[in-house]
Amino acid sequence: MSTQNKPAQRWEDDIYDCFVRHNVSQIPYVPDAGHAHLIRRVHDTPQMRPIVLTTEEEGVASSCGAWLGGEKSVLLMQSSGVGNCINMLSLVSNCNFPFVSIVSMRGEWGEFNHWQVPMSRATPGSFELMGIDVKRCDTPEDVAPTVDAALYAAFSSEQKIAILLSQRLIGRKEW
Amino acid sequence: MTDNTNIERRQAVRRILANRGETLVVCGLGSSTYDVFAAGDDDRNFYLWGAMGGAVMIGLGLAIAQPHKPVLVITGDGEALMGLGALASVAAQKPDNLTIIVLDNAHFGETGMQPSHTGHGVDLTEIANGCGFNNSQTITNNDALDAFSNTPNAANGPRFAVVKITTDNPDRALPNLDGVYIKNRVRSSLGIQPV
Lengths: 175, 195
Fold this sequence. Notes:
The structure holds two protein chains of two kinds. Chain A is an alpha/beta fold.
């Protein structure tokens, strides 16, 4: 492919590149428009296993199972699903499993659907209540170093980290 | 409704695990954890003392990570019902090394024997069938249980069985409570060192 035709690197591609570099192989997800490009790339990669979920806490449990078996997993979801994970995160805490989730934020920047706002507001607090560190990306430049650092910390020493991709970064949903 | 069976839970789990081979076992919160421990402690058992509704998905992540080892989830009707969507998520992945066995006494045994949904007629085998499991059946006698269990290296999954059990309530048999220890023990059994 010539350089002129190569699609521009997007911040979603930076996340994908981090998955490759850190050998992340299981990617459970509840779909979200903010993650759509990344999910497509995961589906196009034979050494990555996309796992579509019916609800977000399933991905907390499957990620723990992956680590039991020696694989690395990252959970993709949107902010509205974070509350669903609360009790299952006790598994992460009690067994000291590594945990990484990348969360696309709704309800915080030019949101038309205000039904998204309460869970958005409660998202960082929900993670913190369960002992998960919260990092935030507000610009495209934040994404690669934040995801790289989180994956390194989680899988080298079983730390627990949620990365929030701000709605300003993702772009507001047009209605 | 559960009296159409003469299978007792402890005896059933002993039979299921008698020829486990290299099988990795995930057991759901409550009586199934006690039953698996009572059948003989093993480094390859992941006991749950919480995270209700999570056993099947832990089994899925483990089965994908260890595709050459049989993975068996043994849980109860209450725990399975709390994570019903997981049956759809497993069926979408079709891991051929994963087996799920639900010990179904149609009650929430740990909390005072309130009737569960299966006691009100919900059929988990039909749900698993509808999700697309390759092999899904309801077992009400020991011959059928042995036939289902004696395939420790099964690679024709995902398989699903409801084992109808009596409502007998044997004494609790309590495995170690330390989640970090239980986790590291399973990983060590696979040759994975603690971080």
